[in-house]
């Protein structure tokens, strides 16, 4: 209530003190929240190391968001020494609990071979899990794998379907790819009007490749 100013004047310093009391007693959500406050410098001096320590405590109790956040800190080396293997381990724990962002991140790690042995099939499986939950970037990644035949059999129809889902959510690179597929008639009936429309949406978001494609189509 102090954090949000409900029932009392907003006071993030007091909020942090009460979260600290609960966190010291092992309350996972308080530990996560205190970690966020140290991470962002709200109510306490910003301290990435302390943030990681509190995320660790909540993550050890099985809190998926804490596991995801701790994985991200190991991935980037904030508050802890950079360690891609540990990042993947924590992403795995959160992904196993159904966290879509962790599933996407784990898919990226399997796709690139960072922190885990490269495995395109596993990458596609994790992208599928996150994509099925509506995560736009995962939908694009899965579409790209179907388009290129990495980790899954090449299937431009499925690629277009996943690009469409991500494009509908405003993902610029999916809009670009969907436009290209309509232009070439890959996975969808060839339709120059739809191609231009999707390329324009991507271009409106500043996608330079979409701008180039539009110039070519307008010649």
Your description of this structure?
The protein is built from twelve helices and no strands. With 219 residues, it is mainly alpha-helical. The chain has two domains: 1-90, Tetratricopeptide repeat domain (Serine Threonine Protein Phosphatase 5, Tetratricopeptide repeat, Alpha Horseshoe); 129-219, Serine Threonine Protein Phosphatase 5, Tetratricopeptide repeat (Alpha Horseshoe). Helix 1 crosses helix 2 (28-40). The mean pLDDT is 97. Pfam families: Sel1. InterPro entries: Sel1-like (IPR006597), Sel1_AlgK (IPR050767), TPR-like_helical_dom_sf (IPR011990). This is Sel1 domain-containing protein.
Tell me briefly what this model is.
This is Sel1 domain-containing protein. The chain is an all-alpha fold and 219 residues long.
The H-level CATH homologous superfamily of the largest domain, spelled out, is Tetratricopeptide repeat domain
CATH topology call of the largest domain: Serine Threonine Protein Phosphatase 5, Tetratricopeptide repeat
**Overall average residue pLDDT:** 97
Low-confidence stretches: none
Radius of gyration: 21 Å
Helix content: 55-70%
SSE string, helices as H and strands as E: HHHHHHHHHHHH
What class, by secondary structure content?
Answer: mainly alpha
What's the structural domain tally?
2
Protein name: Sel1 domain-containing protein
Organism: Saccharibacter floricola DSM 15669
Pfam families: Sel1
InterPro entries: Sel1-like, Sel1_AlgK, TPR-like_helical_dom_sf
């Amino acid at each position: 209530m102090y954090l949000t100013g409900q029932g009392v004047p907003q006071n993030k310093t007091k909020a942090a003190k009460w979260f600290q009391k609960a966190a010291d007693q092992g309350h996972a959500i308080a530990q996560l929240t205190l970690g966020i406050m140290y991470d962002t410098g709200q109510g306490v001096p910003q301290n990435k190391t302390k943030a990681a320590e509190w995320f660790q405590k909540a993550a050890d109790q099985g809190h998926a968001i804490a596991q995801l956040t701790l994985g991200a800190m190991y991935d980037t080396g904030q508050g802890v020494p950079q360690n891609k293997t540990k990042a993947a381990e924590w992403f795995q724990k959160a992904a196993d609990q159904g966290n879509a962002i962790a599933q996407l991140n784990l898919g990226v790690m399997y796709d690139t071979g960072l922190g885990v042995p490269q495995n395109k099939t596993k990458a596609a499986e994790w992208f599928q899990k996150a994509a099925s939950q509506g995560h736009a970037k995962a939908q694009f990644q899965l579409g790209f794998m179907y388009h290129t035949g990495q980790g899954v059999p090449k299937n431009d129809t499925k690629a277009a379907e996943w690009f469409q889902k991500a494009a509908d959510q405003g993902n610029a690179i999916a809009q670009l790819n969907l436009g290209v597929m309509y232009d070439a008639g890959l996975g969808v009936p060839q339709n120059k009007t739809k191609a231009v429309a999707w390329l324009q949406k991507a271009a409106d978001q500043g996608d330079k490749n979409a701008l180039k494609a539009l110039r070519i189509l307008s010649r």
